[in-house]
Amino acid sequence: RKELWVSDELAGDVTVIDTATDQVKTTIQFLPPGFRPVDVTPVGLALSHDGKTMYVTLGRANHVAFVDPATKKIHAYILVGSRAWGVAENKKGTLLYVANGLSDDVSIIDIHAQKTIRSIATGRVPHTVAIDE
Amino acid sequence: MNRFWPAFLFLLWPASAVLGAAPPPAANPSTSVRIGYIDLQNDPRYRTDNSYTGIVFHTLGRPYPGAELGVEDAQLIGKVIGRQFILERKSAATADLPALAKALVAEGDHFIIADLPAPALLKLADAVRGQPVLVMNVSAPDDSLRGADCRRNIVHLIPSESMLTDALVQYLVAKNWKDILALQGPAKEDAGEIAALQRSARKFGATVDAVRPFVLGADPRHRDENNVALMTANSDADVIFVADSGGEFARYVPFETHSPRPVVGDAGLTPLAWHWAWYENGAPQLQHRFEKLASPRRMNAGTWAAWAAVKTVTQSVMRAGAGGFSKVEQFMLGDKINIDGAKGKPMSFRPWDHQLRQPILLATADAVIAEAPLPQYLHQTNDLDTLGYDAPESACHF
Lengths: 133, 398
Hints:
Chain A is mainly β. Helices cover about 0% and strands about 45% of the residues of chain A. The termini of chain B are far apart. Chain B has helices at about 5-20, 65-80, 95-105, 120-125, 160-175, 190-205, 225, 230, 285-295, 300-320, 325-330; strands at about 30-40, 85-90, 110-115, 135, 155, 180-185, 205-215, 240-245, 265, 270, 360-365, 370. The interface between A and B is small, with 3 and 6 residues.
Protein backbone atom coordinates (compact mmCIF):
# COMPACT_ATOMS: atom_id res chain seq x y z
CA ARG A 1 0.00 0.00 0.00
CA LYS A 2 1.61 3.25 -1.11
CA GLU A 3 -0.18 6.08 0.61
CA LEU A 4 0.58 9.56 1.85
CA TRP A 5 -1.44 10.66 4.87
CA VAL A 6 -1.83 14.39 5.47
CA SER A 7 -3.38 15.97 8.55
CA ASP A 8 -5.53 19.00 7.65
CA GLU A 9 -5.61 21.10 10.79
CA LEU A 10 -8.15 23.72 9.76
CA ALA A 11 -10.38 21.47 7.66
CA GLY A 12 -10.51 19.02 10.56
CA ASP A 13 -9.74 15.83 8.66
CA VAL A 14 -6.96 13.59 7.33
CA THR A 15 -6.42 13.27 3.58
CA VAL A 16 -5.09 9.99 2.17
CA ILE A 17 -3.27 10.28 -1.17
CA ASP A 18 -2.40 7.39 -3.50
CA THR A 19 1.28 7.97 -4.25
CA ALA A 20 1.11 5.89 -7.43
CA THR A 21 -1.30 8.36 -9.01
CA ASP A 22 -0.88 11.41 -6.73
CA GLN A 23 -4.66 11.53 -6.38
CA VAL A 24 -6.68 11.91 -3.19
CA LYS A 25 -8.07 8.49 -2.30
CA THR A 26 -10.22 9.42 0.66
CA THR A 27 -10.56 11.76 3.64
CA ILE A 28 -11.09 10.60 7.19
CA GLN A 29 -13.39 12.57 9.50
CA PHE A 30 -13.07 12.51 13.27
CA LEU A 31 -15.47 13.31 16.10
CA PRO A 32 -14.50 12.26 19.62
CA PRO A 33 -17.21 12.28 22.30
CA GLY A 34 -18.00 15.69 23.79
CA PHE A 35 -16.56 17.75 20.94
CA ARG A 36 -17.97 19.50 17.90
CA PRO A 37 -16.52 19.23 14.38
CA VAL A 38 -15.06 22.74 14.59
CA ASP A 39 -12.96 21.65 17.61
CA VAL A 40 -11.25 18.87 15.65
CA THR A 41 -7.83 20.12 14.45
CA PRO A 42 -5.72 17.07 13.50
CA VAL A 43 -1.97 17.58 13.45
CA GLY A 44 0.18 14.61 14.55
CA LEU A 45 0.39 11.37 12.58
CA ALA A 46 2.40 8.28 13.53
CA LEU A 47 2.24 4.70 12.26
CA SER A 48 2.67 1.98 14.86
CA HIS A 49 5.80 -0.18 14.57
CA ASP A 50 3.68 -3.20 13.65
CA GLY A 51 1.93 -1.18 10.91
CA LYS A 52 -1.54 -1.98 12.27
CA THR A 53 -2.52 1.38 13.76
CA MET A 54 -2.20 4.98 12.60
CA TYR A 55 -2.23 7.36 15.55
CA VAL A 56 -3.80 10.75 14.79
CA THR A 57 -3.73 13.52 17.37
CA LEU A 58 -6.79 15.75 17.17
CA GLY A 59 -5.48 19.08 18.44
CA ARG A 60 -8.21 21.12 20.18
CA ALA A 61 -10.40 18.03 20.45
CA ASN A 62 -8.00 16.74 23.13
CA HIS A 63 -7.97 13.12 21.93
CA VAL A 64 -5.84 10.70 19.96
CA ALA A 65 -7.60 8.56 17.37
CA PHE A 66 -6.48 4.98 16.69
CA VAL A 67 -7.15 4.34 12.98
CA ASP A 68 -6.89 1.10 11.02
CA PRO A 69 -4.61 2.10 8.10
CA ALA A 70 -6.12 -0.50 5.77
CA THR A 71 -9.83 0.14 6.33
CA LYS A 72 -9.45 3.77 7.53
CA LYS A 73 -11.89 2.98 10.35
CA ILE A 74 -11.41 4.68 13.71
CA HIS A 75 -11.42 2.03 16.42
CA ALA A 76 -10.72 4.20 19.46
CA TYR A 77 -10.52 7.75 20.79
CA ILE A 78 -8.24 8.22 23.81
CA LEU A 79 -8.59 11.31 25.99
CA VAL A 80 -5.31 13.19 26.53
CA GLY A 81 -4.46 16.78 27.54
CA SER A 82 -5.13 20.16 25.92
CA ARG A 83 -4.32 20.56 22.22
CA ALA A 84 -2.71 17.25 21.35
CA TRP A 85 -0.12 17.56 18.57
CA GLY A 86 3.10 15.54 18.60
CA VAL A 87 2.83 11.75 19.02
CA ALA A 88 5.38 8.92 19.21
CA GLU A 89 5.20 5.18 20.01
CA ASN A 90 7.87 3.22 21.80
CA LYS A 91 9.65 0.39 19.92
CA LYS A 92 7.81 -2.34 21.80
CA GLY A 93 4.46 -0.84 20.83
CA THR A 94 3.25 -0.71 24.42
CA LEU A 95 3.29 3.03 25.16
CA LEU A 96 2.23 6.12 23.22
CA TYR A 97 3.41 9.63 24.12
CA VAL A 98 1.40 12.73 23.20
CA ALA A 99 2.49 16.36 23.59
CA ASN A 100 -0.28 18.63 24.90
CA GLY A 101 0.61 22.19 23.94
CA LEU A 102 -1.99 24.03 26.02
CA SER A 103 -1.68 22.08 29.27
CA ASP A 104 2.15 22.11 29.24
CA ASP A 105 2.38 18.34 29.64
CA VAL A 106 2.90 14.98 27.92
CA SER A 107 0.30 12.18 28.18
CA ILE A 108 1.46 8.57 28.37
CA ILE A 109 -1.00 6.04 26.95
CA ASP A 110 -1.06 2.30 27.62
CA ILE A 111 -1.73 1.20 24.05
CA HIS A 112 -3.15 -2.22 24.88
CA ALA A 113 -5.48 -0.84 27.58
CA GLN A 114 -6.32 2.14 25.31
CA LYS A 115 -6.08 4.49 28.28
CA THR A 116 -3.94 7.42 29.40
CA ILE A 117 -2.08 6.26 32.50
CA ARG A 118 0.02 9.29 33.34
CA SER A 119 0.72 12.95 32.51
CA ILE A 120 4.09 14.59 33.01
CA ALA A 121 4.54 18.35 33.30
CA THR A 122 6.92 19.83 30.74
CA GLY A 123 8.14 23.33 29.85
CA ARG A 124 5.92 25.81 28.01
CA VAL A 125 3.85 24.77 24.98
CA PRO A 126 5.32 21.35 24.09
CA HIS A 127 4.55 20.34 20.49
CA THR A 128 6.77 17.40 19.38
CA VAL A 129 7.78 14.09 20.92
CA ALA A 130 10.89 12.09 19.99
CA ILE A 131 11.89 8.89 21.81
CA ASP A 132 15.51 7.88 22.34
CA GLU A 133 15.55 4.11 22.91
CA MET B 1 36.20 24.62 -3.68
CA ASN B 2 36.47 25.33 -7.42
CA ARG B 3 35.10 21.99 -8.57
CA PHE B 4 31.98 22.48 -6.46
CA TRP B 5 31.08 25.82 -8.01
CA PRO B 6 29.22 24.52 -11.09
CA ALA B 7 27.17 22.17 -8.89
CA PHE B 8 26.40 25.01 -6.51
CA LEU B 9 25.18 27.26 -9.31
CA PHE B 10 23.08 24.47 -10.79
CA LEU B 11 21.36 24.04 -7.42
CA LEU B 12 20.84 27.78 -7.07
CA TRP B 13 19.28 28.47 -10.47
CA PRO B 14 16.12 26.33 -10.34
CA ALA B 15 15.47 27.43 -6.76
CA SER B 16 15.49 31.09 -7.69
CA ALA B 17 13.18 30.45 -10.63
CA VAL B 18 10.65 28.77 -8.35
CA LEU B 19 10.92 31.61 -5.83
CA GLY B 20 10.06 34.14 -8.51
CA ALA B 21 13.38 35.78 -9.20
CA ALA B 22 12.60 35.56 -12.93
CA PRO B 23 10.54 38.40 -14.43
CA PRO B 24 6.75 37.81 -14.45
CA PRO B 25 5.34 36.15 -17.59
CA ALA B 26 3.34 38.30 -19.97
CA ALA B 27 -0.33 38.33 -19.01
CA ASN B 28 -2.26 35.73 -20.94
CA PRO B 29 -5.92 36.82 -20.96
CA SER B 30 -7.24 33.28 -20.82
CA THR B 31 -5.15 32.24 -17.83
CA SER B 32 -4.61 35.47 -15.92
CA VAL B 33 -6.67 36.34 -12.87
CA ARG B 34 -6.90 40.12 -12.72
CA ILE B 35 -7.62 41.64 -9.33
CA GLY B 36 -8.39 45.34 -9.32
CA TYR B 37 -7.71 47.54 -6.31
CA ILE B 38 -9.41 50.91 -5.88
CA ASP B 39 -8.78 53.46 -3.19
CA LEU B 40 -9.54 57.12 -2.72
CA GLN B 41 -7.12 59.99 -3.16
CA ASN B 42 -7.23 62.24 -0.11
CA ASP B 43 -9.16 59.69 1.91
CA PRO B 44 -9.77 61.49 5.23
CA ARG B 45 -9.34 58.25 7.14
CA TYR B 46 -5.63 58.16 6.28
CA ARG B 47 -4.78 61.79 6.96
CA THR B 48 -1.50 62.33 8.75
CA ASP B 49 -1.73 66.10 9.03
CA ASN B 50 -4.57 66.11 11.54
CA SER B 51 -2.80 67.18 14.70
CA TYR B 52 -2.31 70.87 15.30
CA THR B 53 1.08 70.22 16.84
CA GLY B 54 2.33 68.63 13.64
CA ILE B 55 3.22 65.43 15.48
CA VAL B 56 1.81 62.40 13.67
CA PHE B 57 0.43 60.18 16.45
CA HIS B 58 -2.24 58.29 14.56
CA THR B 59 -1.13 56.40 11.47
CA LEU B 60 -3.81 54.09 10.17
CA GLY B 61 -1.81 53.07 7.09
CA ARG B 62 -3.33 52.01 3.77
CA PRO B 63 -4.31 48.36 3.23
CA TYR B 64 -2.64 48.09 -0.19
CA PRO B 65 0.63 46.34 0.85
CA GLY B 66 -1.49 43.49 2.23
CA ALA B 67 -2.88 42.88 -1.24
CA GLU B 68 0.66 42.95 -2.63
CA LEU B 69 1.64 40.25 -0.14
CA GLY B 70 -1.41 38.19 -1.12
CA VAL B 71 -0.37 38.25 -4.76
CA GLU B 72 3.21 37.37 -3.83
CA ASP B 73 1.90 34.39 -1.83
CA ALA B 74 -0.24 33.41 -4.83
CA GLN B 75 2.66 33.07 -7.25
CA LEU B 76 3.58 29.52 -6.29
CA ILE B 77 -0.04 28.36 -6.49
CA GLY B 78 -0.31 30.13 -9.83
CA LYS B 79 2.68 28.21 -11.19
CA VAL B 80 1.15 24.90 -10.13
CA ILE B 81 -2.32 25.58 -11.59
CA GLY B 82 -1.14 27.51 -14.63
CA ARG B 83 -2.69 30.89 -13.77
CA GLN B 84 -1.16 34.32 -13.25
CA PHE B 85 -2.51 36.51 -10.46
CA ILE B 86 -2.24 40.17 -11.35
CA LEU B 87 -3.01 43.10 -9.07
CA GLU B 88 -3.81 46.51 -10.54
CA ARG B 89 -4.27 49.56 -8.34
CA LYS B 90 -6.21 52.71 -9.21
CA SER B 91 -6.55 55.74 -6.94
CA ALA B 92 -9.61 57.79 -7.67
CA ALA B 93 -11.49 60.90 -6.73
CA THR B 94 -15.08 59.96 -5.76
CA ALA B 95 -16.53 61.33 -8.96
CA ASP B 96 -14.32 59.05 -11.10
CA LEU B 97 -15.23 55.83 -9.29
CA PRO B 98 -17.95 54.49 -11.59
CA ALA B 99 -15.86 55.13 -14.71
CA LEU B 100 -12.77 53.53 -13.14
CA ALA B 101 -14.72 50.49 -12.05
CA LYS B 102 -16.18 50.02 -15.51
CA ALA B 103 -12.70 50.35 -17.03
CA LEU B 104 -11.37 47.61 -14.74
CA VAL B 105 -14.29 45.36 -15.61
CA ALA B 106 -13.65 45.96 -19.32
CA GLU B 107 -10.04 44.83 -18.80
CA GLY B 108 -11.28 41.54 -17.40
CA ASP B 109 -11.16 42.15 -13.64
CA HIS B 110 -13.76 40.02 -11.89
CA PHE B 111 -12.61 41.03 -8.42
CA ILE B 112 -12.18 44.59 -7.23
CA ILE B 113 -10.67 45.13 -3.80
CA ALA B 114 -12.09 48.37 -2.45
CA ASP B 115 -10.50 50.53 0.23
CA LEU B 116 -13.29 53.10 0.39
CA PRO B 117 -15.57 54.76 2.94
CA ALA B 118 -19.17 53.50 2.86
CA PRO B 119 -20.81 56.04 0.51
CA ALA B 120 -18.04 55.63 -2.11
CA LEU B 121 -18.14 51.84 -1.73
CA LEU B 122 -21.87 51.79 -2.50
CA LYS B 123 -21.32 54.08 -5.49
CA LEU B 124 -18.71 51.66 -6.84
CA ALA B 125 -20.81 48.55 -6.26
CA ASP B 126 -23.89 50.10 -7.89
CA ALA B 127 -21.84 51.14 -10.93
CA VAL B 128 -20.97 47.48 -11.64
CA ARG B 129 -24.22 45.87 -10.53
CA GLY B 130 -25.24 43.00 -12.79
CA GLN B 131 -21.69 42.59 -14.14
CA PRO B 132 -19.60 39.49 -13.42
CA VAL B 133 -17.60 41.24 -10.71
CA LEU B 134 -17.35 41.04 -6.94
CA VAL B 135 -16.35 44.06 -4.86
CA MET B 136 -14.27 43.20 -1.79
CA ASN B 137 -14.53 45.67 1.10
CA VAL B 138 -11.34 45.85 3.15
CA SER B 139 -11.79 48.99 5.23
CA ALA B 140 -15.39 50.14 5.80
CA PRO B 141 -16.76 48.71 9.09
CA ASP B 142 -20.23 50.29 8.96
CA ASP B 143 -22.98 47.97 10.21
CA SER B 144 -25.35 49.55 7.67
CA LEU B 145 -23.31 47.98 4.83
CA ARG B 146 -24.14 44.58 6.29
CA GLY B 147 -27.73 45.60 6.95
CA ALA B 148 -30.11 47.93 5.20
CA ASP B 149 -27.45 49.11 2.70
CA CYS B 150 -26.13 45.66 1.82
CA ARG B 151 -25.33 44.76 -1.78
CA ARG B 152 -25.20 41.31 -3.28
CA ASN B 153 -22.02 42.17 -5.18
CA ILE B 154 -20.01 43.22 -2.11
CA VAL B 155 -18.17 40.89 0.26
CA HIS B 156 -16.72 42.25 3.51
CA LEU B 157 -13.31 41.09 4.68
CA ILE B 158 -12.93 43.75 7.39
CA PRO B 159 -15.10 43.08 10.47
CA SER B 160 -18.16 45.22 11.16
CA GLU B 161 -18.60 47.68 14.04
CA SER B 162 -20.87 45.22 15.82
CA MET B 163 -18.38 42.35 15.50
CA LEU B 164 -15.77 44.52 17.20
CA THR B 165 -18.00 45.65 20.07
CA ASP B 166 -19.40 42.11 20.47
CA ALA B 167 -15.85 40.80 20.85
CA LEU B 168 -15.02 43.44 23.46
CA VAL B 169 -18.25 43.01 25.44
CA GLN B 170 -17.85 39.20 25.42
CA TYR B 171 -14.54 39.77 27.18
CA LEU B 172 -15.93 42.35 29.63
CA VAL B 173 -18.85 40.12 30.60
CA ALA B 174 -16.53 37.13 31.01
CA LYS B 175 -14.48 39.24 33.42
CA ASN B 176 -17.67 40.44 35.14
CA TRP B 177 -16.79 44.07 34.30
CA LYS B 178 -20.35 44.63 33.19
CA ASP B 179 -21.04 48.27 33.97
CA ILE B 180 -19.70 50.49 31.24
CA LEU B 181 -19.34 54.26 31.10
CA ALA B 182 -19.05 55.38 27.49
CA LEU B 183 -17.39 58.53 26.20
CA GLN B 184 -18.46 59.60 22.70
CA GLY B 185 -16.57 61.85 20.30
CA PRO B 186 -18.10 64.24 17.77
CA ALA B 187 -17.50 62.14 14.61
CA LYS B 188 -20.21 60.16 12.83
CA GLU B 189 -18.07 57.03 13.25
CA ASP B 190 -18.10 57.59 17.02
CA ALA B 191 -21.90 57.52 17.04
CA GLY B 192 -21.72 54.25 15.11
CA GLU B 193 -19.38 52.75 17.69
CA ILE B 194 -21.65 53.78 20.56
CA ALA B 195 -24.74 52.35 18.86
CA ALA B 196 -22.88 49.08 18.29
CA LEU B 197 -21.70 49.05 21.90
CA GLN B 198 -25.23 49.49 23.23
CA ARG B 199 -26.45 46.64 21.08
CA SER B 200 -23.59 44.40 22.23
CA ALA B 201 -24.33 45.23 25.87
CA ARG B 202 -27.98 44.19 25.47
CA LYS B 203 -26.89 41.04 23.66
CA PHE B 204 -24.43 39.80 26.27
CA GLY B 205 -25.88 41.22 29.50
CA ALA B 206 -23.70 44.24 30.15
CA THR B 207 -25.00 47.75 30.90
CA VAL B 208 -24.00 51.06 29.39
CA ASP B 209 -24.61 53.28 32.44
CA ALA B 210 -24.23 56.53 30.56
CA VAL B 211 -22.92 58.00 27.32
CA ARG B 212 -21.06 61.27 27.83
CA PRO B 213 -19.85 63.44 24.95
CA PHE B 214 -16.32 64.77 24.71
CA VAL B 215 -14.66 67.46 22.63
CA LEU B 216 -11.02 68.18 22.00
CA GLY B 217 -9.93 71.42 23.56
CA ALA B 218 -9.02 73.30 26.73
CA ASP B 219 -11.85 75.82 26.97
CA PRO B 220 -12.82 75.87 30.67
CA ARG B 221 -16.40 76.74 29.72
CA HIS B 222 -16.66 73.23 28.28
CA ARG B 223 -14.64 71.46 30.94
CA ASP B 224 -17.35 68.87 31.50
CA GLU B 225 -16.67 67.74 27.95
CA ASN B 226 -12.92 68.17 27.65
CA ASN B 227 -11.64 67.28 31.12
CA VAL B 228 -11.34 63.51 31.52
CA ALA B 229 -11.43 63.47 35.33
CA LEU B 230 -14.56 65.60 35.42
CA MET B 231 -16.43 63.70 32.74
CA THR B 232 -15.72 60.35 34.38
CA ALA B 233 -16.73 61.45 37.88
CA ASN B 234 -20.07 60.43 39.41
CA SER B 235 -19.95 56.97 38.00
CA ASP B 236 -19.89 53.46 39.47
CA ALA B 237 -18.92 51.90 36.17
CA ASP B 238 -16.35 49.07 36.03
CA VAL B 239 -14.77 50.20 32.76
CA ILE B 240 -14.61 53.28 30.56
CA PHE B 241 -15.31 52.81 26.82
CA VAL B 242 -14.00 55.53 24.52
CA ALA B 243 -15.40 56.03 21.02
CA ASP B 244 -12.82 58.23 19.31
CA SER B 245 -12.19 57.39 15.68
CA GLY B 246 -9.96 60.45 15.38
CA GLY B 247 -7.68 58.94 17.99
CA GLU B 248 -6.28 62.14 19.43
CA PHE B 249 -8.44 62.24 22.58
CA ALA B 250 -8.64 58.54 23.49
CA ARG B 251 -4.96 58.15 24.25
CA TYR B 252 -5.27 60.59 27.15
CA VAL B 253 -8.10 58.77 28.91
CA PRO B 254 -6.17 56.01 30.72
CA PHE B 255 -4.76 57.31 34.02
CA GLU B 256 -6.76 60.57 33.85
CA THR B 257 -10.08 58.99 34.82
CA HIS B 258 -11.65 59.98 38.13
CA SER B 259 -11.61 56.43 39.50
CA PRO B 260 -9.05 53.74 38.69
CA ARG B 261 -10.76 51.97 35.80
CA PRO B 262 -9.61 49.99 32.74
CA VAL B 263 -10.11 51.84 29.47
CA VAL B 264 -11.42 50.02 26.39
CA GLY B 265 -12.48 50.87 22.86
CA ASP B 266 -10.22 53.26 20.96
CA ALA B 267 -7.65 53.24 23.78
CA GLY B 268 -6.53 50.55 26.20
CA LEU B 269 -8.03 47.22 25.18
CA THR B 270 -9.05 47.50 21.52
CA PRO B 271 -10.92 44.98 19.32
CA LEU B 272 -9.20 44.51 15.96
CA ALA B 273 -9.18 42.27 12.92
CA TRP B 274 -5.41 41.90 13.30
CA HIS B 275 -2.53 43.01 15.50
CA TRP B 276 1.20 42.74 14.81
CA ALA B 277 1.79 40.96 18.14
CA TRP B 278 -0.50 38.00 17.30
CA TYR B 279 1.66 34.86 17.54
CA GLU B 280 -0.64 31.82 17.38
CA ASN B 281 -1.98 29.89 14.38
CA GLY B 282 1.11 30.38 12.27
CA ALA B 283 0.80 34.18 12.55
CA PRO B 284 4.54 34.94 12.90
CA GLN B 285 5.15 33.56 9.41
CA LEU B 286 2.57 35.94 8.00
CA GLN B 287 3.87 38.82 10.13
CA HIS B 288 7.42 38.25 8.91
CA ARG B 289 6.45 37.93 5.25
CA PHE B 290 4.56 41.21 5.52
CA GLU B 291 7.37 43.03 7.31
CA LYS B 292 9.85 41.80 4.72
CA LEU B 293 7.70 43.41 2.04
CA ALA B 294 6.54 46.56 3.83
CA SER B 295 9.00 47.31 6.64
CA PRO B 296 8.96 49.56 8.67
CA ARG B 297 5.22 48.88 8.58
CA ARG B 298 3.76 46.00 10.52
CA MET B 299 0.56 44.23 9.53
CA ASN B 300 -2.62 45.88 10.82
CA ALA B 301 -6.34 45.26 10.36
CA GLY B 302 -6.56 46.86 6.90
CA THR B 303 -3.48 45.17 5.46
CA TRP B 304 -4.66 41.84 6.89
CA ALA B 305 -8.07 42.30 5.26
CA ALA B 306 -6.50 43.12 1.89
CA TRP B 307 -4.21 40.08 2.17
CA ALA B 308 -7.20 37.90 3.11
CA ALA B 309 -9.14 39.24 0.12
CA VAL B 310 -6.44 38.14 -2.32
CA LYS B 311 -6.07 34.81 -0.51
CA THR B 312 -9.82 34.25 -0.83
CA VAL B 313 -9.60 34.84 -4.59
CA THR B 314 -6.54 32.58 -4.92
CA GLN B 315 -8.17 29.73 -2.99
CA SER B 316 -11.47 30.05 -4.86
CA VAL B 317 -9.77 30.08 -8.28
CA MET B 318 -7.64 27.10 -7.26
CA ARG B 319 -10.65 25.06 -6.18
CA ALA B 320 -13.22 26.18 -8.74
CA GLY B 321 -11.39 28.18 -11.39
CA ALA B 322 -11.92 25.89 -14.34
CA GLY B 323 -15.56 26.89 -14.59
CA GLY B 324 -15.08 30.63 -14.94
CA PHE B 325 -16.21 33.52 -12.73
CA SER B 326 -19.64 32.21 -11.79
CA LYS B 327 -18.18 28.93 -10.50
CA VAL B 328 -15.48 30.82 -8.59
CA GLU B 329 -18.07 33.16 -7.05
CA GLN B 330 -20.31 30.20 -6.19
CA PHE B 331 -17.44 28.49 -4.38
CA MET B 332 -16.38 31.68 -2.63
CA LEU B 333 -19.84 32.33 -1.23
CA GLY B 334 -20.62 28.67 -0.51
CA ASP B 335 -20.11 26.46 2.50
CA LYS B 336 -17.07 24.49 1.27
CA ILE B 337 -14.72 27.46 1.42
CA ASN B 338 -12.27 27.41 4.31
CA ILE B 339 -9.82 30.31 4.46
CA ASP B 340 -6.92 30.16 6.89
CA GLY B 341 -6.38 33.75 7.99
CA ALA B 342 -3.76 32.87 10.64
CA LYS B 343 -6.41 33.39 13.31
CA GLY B 344 -7.08 29.72 13.93
CA LYS B 345 -10.68 29.21 12.87
CA PRO B 346 -11.63 28.45 9.26
CA MET B 347 -13.27 31.50 7.70
CA SER B 348 -16.18 31.67 5.28
CA PHE B 349 -18.79 34.24 4.20
CA ARG B 350 -22.16 34.57 5.90
CA PRO B 351 -24.81 33.93 3.25
CA TRP B 352 -27.17 36.55 4.71
CA ASP B 353 -24.86 39.55 4.47
CA HIS B 354 -21.57 38.40 2.86
CA GLN B 355 -19.51 39.24 5.93
CA LEU B 356 -16.40 37.11 6.42
CA ARG B 357 -16.78 35.25 9.69
CA GLN B 358 -13.56 35.55 11.67
CA PRO B 359 -12.06 35.65 15.14
CA ILE B 360 -11.39 39.14 16.56
CA LEU B 361 -8.25 40.00 18.51
CA LEU B 362 -8.49 42.06 21.72
CA ALA B 363 -5.21 43.93 22.02
CA THR B 364 -3.35 46.64 23.88
CA ALA B 365 -0.59 48.66 22.24
CA ASP B 366 1.84 45.74 22.22
CA ALA B 367 0.07 42.50 23.13
CA VAL B 368 -3.00 40.45 22.24
CA ILE B 369 -4.85 39.80 25.48
CA ALA B 370 -7.62 37.56 24.17
CA GLU B 371 -9.19 36.21 21.01
CA ALA B 372 -12.97 36.36 20.49
CA PRO B 373 -15.28 34.53 20.40
CA LEU B 374 -14.29 33.53 23.92
CA PRO B 375 -14.75 29.85 24.77
CA GLN B 376 -17.72 30.68 27.04
CA TYR B 377 -19.83 31.76 24.07
CA LEU B 378 -21.42 29.04 21.99
CA HIS B 379 -23.58 29.05 18.89
CA GLN B 380 -25.89 26.53 17.31
CA THR B 381 -23.90 26.17 14.09
CA ASN B 382 -20.74 28.29 14.19
CA ASP B 383 -19.30 30.08 17.23
CA LEU B 384 -17.93 32.82 14.99
CA ASP B 385 -21.54 33.87 14.42
CA THR B 386 -21.78 35.07 18.04
CA LEU B 387 -19.94 38.13 16.68
CA GLY B 388 -21.95 40.59 14.61
CA TYR B 389 -25.44 40.26 13.16
CA ASP B 390 -26.67 36.66 13.01
CA ALA B 391 -29.09 35.43 10.35
CA PRO B 392 -32.39 35.99 12.21
CA GLU B 393 -31.36 39.56 13.14
CA SER B 394 -30.13 40.67 9.75
CA ALA B 395 -31.75 43.62 8.00
CA CYS B 396 -30.03 42.65 4.76
CA HIS B 397 -32.17 41.38 1.91
CA PHE B 398 -30.18 41.21 -1.32
